[in-house]
Design brief:
The protein is an alpha+beta fold. It is built from 14 helices and eleven strands. The chain folds into three domains: 160 residues, no CATH class; 132 residues, Alpha-Beta Plaits, CATH 3.30.70.1660; 67 residues, Double Stranded RNA Binding Domain (2-Layer Sandwich), CATH 3.30.160.20. β2 and β3 form a beta hairpin. The protein starts with a helix and ends with a helix. The strands form two sheets. The chain has an eight-stranded mixed sheet. The protein has a three-stranded antiparallel sheet with strand order 6-7-8, with helices on one face. Helices cover 52% and strands 18% of the residues. The protein is flat and about 95 Å long.
């Protein structure tokens, strides 16, 4: 028989749980809000993913963050206190500015909530043991215990997401893709065309804006090099397309192969974030502009007038040649636009190599030149070597359909989980906990 005092304690505990549930729902910091989660299955399922970090060490680190915040709030020399924080933690918080302090304060507030929930869980577990002989009450306490454990898991996930943000989607609103044939001659160029078409179809299905900056074709009608800008407005296009960077290998019998032999060719894809800043025009003094007669087919007019525009960026030696139209001015405008994107892409590439330097050392991210995927036409299957996933339906995949989308989401989910776990472990190691 349950004594009156214990029953009152149980009732008080239930009331407290309901109170904190309402409190948690009213706090923006309880869960990191992300509009993408409404439509993306990856972010809907991410909250249930377990971090590959020791749970006790993770909770201990959360309390360590709260202690840092409390010391900072009570310190009379806040500037000196902040500069003494560990390097990686400062980087994850966004530097030494005011926003970093606000983020740490918000995290500390959620840690307080976590502490309350852990205390309530301990009380529920004690009551559960007392009710072992009372089947009905034991069942009720077990339901509350499971519900509380789920809430604690969500709070821990929200803290991790608040602390370790997806820096690859910050300060950009899309991606810059470069597709070039690799080993395999004409067959590599033909497959590069198919890869580029796949990206175009996927962007069309996803509602992304696609701007072809450069598209060079060879005499056989196959792709020599393509440079395209994909804009999404929220940086998520880059979060997906960054997983396409690397070497794509194709195994099939080329249409030009008369003996039926299987050929192996490669295509290289490079991906950079598209800056959300307006690209400043290149300085006129840095450009050398010349005009010449167009080459190739086009009739007497194309081959007799100076309609082809050739623009050279003197500091980098980059040259762009455009002869797409009969109008000299139109070709010049397009050449300057292409050159601007190319030069700024190189600047972005150099900048990206320096961004997140501490995090990169800790996570040891994969080299972009790795062979990432194999397309086997004979068996109609695609194998992604990074996650060990093999999918069937190569035609639908190359049409940028559901099979391709499914793999992109799988890669993004795997990338987020691995990187966050690695960074959290590095933060714990940095704190010597």
């Amino acid at each position: 028989m349950l004594c009156c005092s214990r029953w009152m304690q149980l009732t008080a505990t239930y009331s407290k749980l309901r109170h904190y549930s309402k409190l948690g729902a009213s706090l923006d910091i309880f869960r990191v809000k992300n509009e993408r989660s409404k439509n993306c299955p990856i972010f809907r399922s991410y909250a249930t993913n377990a971090f590959a970090v020791d749970d006790q060490k993770l909770i201990k680190y959360f309390f360590h963050l709260k202690k840092l915040n409390d010391e900072f709030v009570s310190s009379k020399h806040k500037g000196e206190n902040r500069h003494a924080w560990p390097e990686l933690l400062l980087e994850e918080l966004g530097g030494r500015g005011k926003s970093a302090m606000e983020r740490l304060f918000n995290i500390s507030t959620v840690v307080e909530m976590l502490n309350e929930r852990l205390h309530d869980l301990g009380e529920i577990e004690k009551l559960s043991k007392e009710f072992e002989t009372d089947e009905e009450m034991f069942k009720e306490t077990e339901i509350e215990r499971q519900s509380l454990e789920d809430e604690i898991s969500e709070i821990k996930t929200s803290i991790v997401e608040s602390l370790v943000t997806d820096k690859d989607s910050e300060d950009n609103d899309g991606a810059v893709l470069e597709v070039t044939p690799g080993i395999g001659g004409v067959e590599a160029a033909m497959f590069a065309t198919e890869i580029f078409d796949m990206y175009q179809k996927f962007c069309h299905r996803s509602g992304y804006d696609l701007d072809v900056v450069e598209y060079d074709m060879g005499e056989n009608g196959a792709l020599v090099k393509a440079n395209v800008v994909v804009s999404s407005g929220d940086g998520y296009a880059y979060s997906l397309f960054k997983h396409e960077a690397g070497i794509h290998r194709v195994q099939r019998v080329p249409k030009t192969e008369k003996s039926g032999r299987l050929h192996t060719s490669t295509v290289s894809v490079a991906v950079l974030p598209k800056s959300n800043e307006v690209l400043p025009p290149l300085q006129r003094k840095d450009l050398k502009i010349t005009f010449s007669k167009s080459s190739g087919n086009g009739g007497q007019h194309a081959n007799s007038t100076l309609s082809c525009a050739v623009v050279c960026h003197i500091p980098t030696g980059t040259i762009v040649r455009v002869e797409e139209t009969r109008c000299q001015k139109t070709n010049l405008d397009r050449a300057q636009q292409k050159l601007t994107h190319i030069v700024h892409s190189e600047v972005m590439k150099a900048k990206q190599a320096q961004v997140n330097s501490v995090r990169r050392k800790q996570t040891r991210s994969r080299e972009r030149s790795d062979k990432i995927r194999t397309y086997n036409f004979h068996h109609s299957r695609i194998t992604d070597h990074r996650v060990g996933v093999t999918l069937s339906g190569i035609e639908e995949f190359l049409n940028g359909g559901a099979v391709f989308e499914k793999l992109l989401y799988k890669l993004e989910e795997n990338s987020l989980t691995e990187e966050r776990a690695a960074v959290i472990q590095a933060l714990i190691d940095e704190a010597n906990l």
